[in-house]
Amino acid sequence: MSVSSLEKYLPENALPFLRKWFGEYYIHIKITRGRNSKLGDYRKMPDKSHQITINSTLQPQLFFFVLTHELAHLIAFEQFGRKIFPHGAEWKHTFREMLLESISVYAEDLKPMILKFSRSPKANFMASPELVKYFHIEDFHDESSYIEDLNIGDRFLYRKHTYIIQEKRKINYLCKNLDTGKIYIFKPLARVEKLN
């Protein structure tokens, strides 16, 4: 897939940054259906090319943000070698520089959040409550809630299973699946449906 064919997924003025970052690398971009487990993924292929998968359902600014995250993996590995940690200091430095370089692509109300995030980029998008809430803004009309907005003892539905919040540990929540009796850890920004 060529850089230009990504245009329909991107915010305005994003293509020049992608053209620069893609450079001479041979990159396969795969646009996938929405995945709950991840927004994007990077892999070095056996033939020395690179593969990036990214969810097609993302809003343009989030699509660009996730693509920047994945390209930062490629660029960091190419610059610093394959022995670096995937989300280590080299990746953080690379991602930070790319975010700052492309800050003009983002909406005015999003720029302060991107700047704040760039100070110490996180491996997981879900670790940034401001960004998660910003990009889920249209979803607030539905019946779902963030688990952090519920109380200990509240029951909720998640992927057709009923859970009860048992306790909070640091920032995560221990929840019991009432169908199986098993205990699971939920991140604070997991979207769930509260039960009365």
TrEMBL record:
GO biological process assignments: response to stress
Domain SprT-like per the UniProt entry, residue ranges: 44-98
One Pfam family per UniProt: SprT-like
Lineage of origin: Bacteria, Pseudomonadati, Bacteroidota, Flavobacteriia, Flavobacteriales
Protein name: Transcription elongation protein SprT
Organism: Chryseobacterium koreense CCUG 49689
InterPro entries referenced in this protein's UniProt entry, alphabetically: SprT-like_domain
